[in-house]
Amino acid sequence: MNTAAPATPARLREAPFEAPQLTDEDVVRSHDRARVHHARRHRRHWHLLWLLAGPGILAMLGENDGPSMIAYASDGAQYGLGFFVPFIPVLFAMAYVCQEMCMRVGAVTHRGYGELVLQRYGRVWGWFGAGDLTLTNLVTLVAEFVAIRVGLAYFHLGAGVAVALGLTLVVFTLSGGRYWRWERIVLGLAAFNGLFLVAAILVKPHIGTVASSFDFMPFPGGSFNTLLLLLASTIGATVTPWMIFFQQSASADKGMTPRDINHGRYDTAAGAVLAAIFGLGALVAGAALLAHDGSGIQGFAPNAGFPQALSRVAGGAAGTVFALGLIEAGAVAILTISASTAYAAGECIGVSHSFNRSPRDAAVFYAANIGIALLAAVVILIPGAPLLSIALNANVLATVLLPVSLVFMVMLANDHALMGKWANKRSTNVLGITVIAFVGLCGAAYGIDSFLQTIHLIPS
Amino acid sequence: MSPIPPDIEQAPPVSPIPEAELQPQERYEDELIMHLERDQFVAETSRPVPRAVLSAGATAGLWALRVFVVLVSIMVIYTFIADLH
Hints:
heterodimer, A: mainly alpha, Amino acid/polyamine transporter I, 21 helices, 0% strand, globular, B: mainly alpha
């Protein structure tokens, strides 16, 4: 695999049989790469960082989605800050380990995750992965629409507005036929994830209490099953299968190369830090309800449950900011999760899968992108649909299905035939395998324990 | 990773075209091509990568993990449906 230097025209003319057939996608990507080369040549470091940032921040802030922020806030409302203030940054450090591998594999191979698994390990594994992804994405997208609906309910707007807003955003961001445009719009929206930090400030937390929480204890009380549910849902709020598909495919679609890997790491690290800070913001805002019977708060209650409760306890401004944050979190996640589904569909079917293609040239990609969002939107409009249960179980399901995706990620990142000198080092493998073991154990323990309780083999 | 087909491999070498003789469109395409790595073109990424050879142990491990995850997923979905009632 040639990863050393850009192909020069002279070399290509000397070897005309290797000259590539330029597509529209190549032309658009080449324009983006020209700006990267220009910034690098003129040592414009900040501009280079700006040009190469995107997939990492979007994966991390996209995962700070509606269900995740509600999960963090519910943790704060029910258990306080003690365990979660240090636990959330640890989880995002785990997420960094996984996402850095995705970025690196995408930059070196210029191919998406679904495509590589399918071609390298066979169609069965490729389609299994795509099936897992589609299932978790659909459930999660339903939860995103529910989160938007909860946020809008605070402003007395209904489910129809939530559906219209979500679908309009998906169609609008897809309309440019260019990855760069899509990425910058979603990055602009994702910046508003910081609203959760504003909400945390508005509830006026006691700084000393927050700081002392970094002692990592006390462990939350409650039954063993409740504890497993907390762990599984909080992990599912931080690392999910869609992030793996998304960041690798987006890194390839953006045109990243091995020379950009360090900037990709900065991008991923920045995303992890920002997501951890904003997630902690939701936790701290939720903790304001701890002294007000927080355990009774229904985060996904259709009548603006969480923002409404926060408004009563900490003032209207905190409730308003939290509601706007939920709308943002749901909207950004709809865009990134739909995109990950579209990448996976295009890669597994073997057709064009790039934002740099027009809808005519990449019909499956665009149809999957809009189609899955539309399907989730239809679900939330069904009268009597169990939206609360779907939303609460979305993160758990993601945690249960995650280990398979992570195992293939580590295998790809270790594949010397694909990755050459950019393959995983031993330390990265140790971290990656630890993450897989931890995630697998938590998800499986919760699934098995809950099942045994449900069939009354062990007491509830 | 992507072997050259034999008929192309036997093609006679073609001399480079002098820079001055290039048409504006060719110059434009050359400039575009310069900014992409050779294996980054759609023509190149459309070629599948070769299948990896997994050991029997690795294949068995993957299947075990897959079966385990499917079983746990069924348990979670069953619990979810039971909770609805």
